[in-house]
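Chapter review: from sequence to fold.
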Amino acid sequence: MRVRSWTLTCSVIAFLVLICPSPASEASQNEAVSILLEARDVASTVKDHAERTTALDHIVVAQIGVDPPGARNSIKLIPDLLNAPNHLVSLAFNYAKVGDTQNAQEIHAEIYKLSGSDHGIKLARANVLGHVAWAYANAGQFEEAYRQLAKLKEKYKGENFAIFDAATARIAEALAKHGNVAQAIEIAKSVAGDDPYPLMHIVSGLVHTSDLPRVSMIVSDLEESLQQYAKWGIVTAQIGLNNLKDAHTTAHAIKPGHAKANALMELANHYRERRSCQ
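The token string follows.
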């Protein structure tokens, strides 16, 4: 019972760290880092292998959120960590999100130090490489981003990994953020059949910049099915700008289907959340 209570405690620690969105002070951040290192050392003494590795796994998840270098060190120190490949994928994702190409590349090197040749490790390595491509895109280094994306597709040719389209879509969104909207739209359209969300995000971002003539031109040039998702993106932006009358109009102009249902649901959720805050 004591061991299982310990596992539950680790789960709670990880959960609390991950769900707290407010920025912590430097002192509290350092305290969290210190406590997690102590928790890792204590968890390492648990005798039961399954309980020990489960507890350590929860701690590494928490470290990824507050102490990436500590998480990386834990992965190196714990050879039988349950989800080491997936933890490295999460780290690469976080580095890529902020355009940290150096650390993303380092994670790509580290994942090859893990033993294993099964489908899981192969998928994890592909995901990390996709995040490397995204990191370069977010850093504005698009030539290198395309090179890494091509490397990903060549290395894992014949596989049907979701990261192929996911990395492509994220590069499109990065292009839009760096001002190359036309190219971003073309790339987003190439994956929109499976993932329309990047197209939606790009259109939504343009609404936030008040570039409405460009938005209208982009939407009118899309094929009919994609127009509906683009309009959902417009609804999302209008809600964010508190233009609720316009959001109503746009949502009801969407043709019946998945996009319209979700746009209306988003509107309903906005009103529900606004009411709960009153």
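Two observations follow directly from the output. Confidence is low (pLDDT under 50) at residues 5-9, 14-19. The longest helix spans residues 119-138.
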